[in-house]
Amino acid sequence: xxxxxxxxxxxxxxxxxxxxxxxxxxxxxxxxxxxxxxxxxxxxxxxxxxxxxxxxxxxxxxxxxxxxxxxxxxxxxxxxxxxxxxxxxxxxxxxxxxxxxxxxxxxxxxxxxxxxxxxxxxxxxxxxxxxxxxxxxxxxxxxxxxxxxxxxxxxxxxxxxxxxxxxxxxxxxxxxxxxxxxxxxxxxxxxxxxxxxxxxxxxxxxxxxxxxxxxxxxxxxxxxxxxxxx
Length: 230
Known about the structure:
The chain has 230 residues and is of the alpha+beta class.
């Protein structure tokens, strides 16, 4: 059988031209299919896009690791301690920050760049103290943050001043020494209700003071004649 010659103006498309013309014809016949196809392509694109694509700092915040320490440990009341921290993550930059909380830090007003740092802080609390380091993504619309590490240290070198009111001078001196303090000045004041005993003290009872601090007392006495205690 002889091959039929192609009609003028109706040449069969071949190669890339064929594919393009076929696709164009298909799109014209099925606009709904076009919409479904575009939707599927967009869904696939968003599915593989990292969650941090619109918030550059989020990658750092998610991947960051950190540590924080204090020296000395335990810390000493009334003295300075040095808090050191360090953190790192993937793609960390200016849009990322570290927030430190604890004595000597104000997380509401101060943050630090991702990396290492240190600060000398005064210990004015008793019992124990804790510091925390948190990474924050400043570029995130939601303010994404993640806690990285914390350190807790007990406070030594401190106790509370005992209550010596009503004690004799000898009893007060013994109580002061037992608490780790030193007897300071001893004065007298007219006080008919507390003759020969402590009527007041400085610092007052319950005050936290470093060991070795002085505590002063005032002893009550009778008024000079001709005045008398009634």
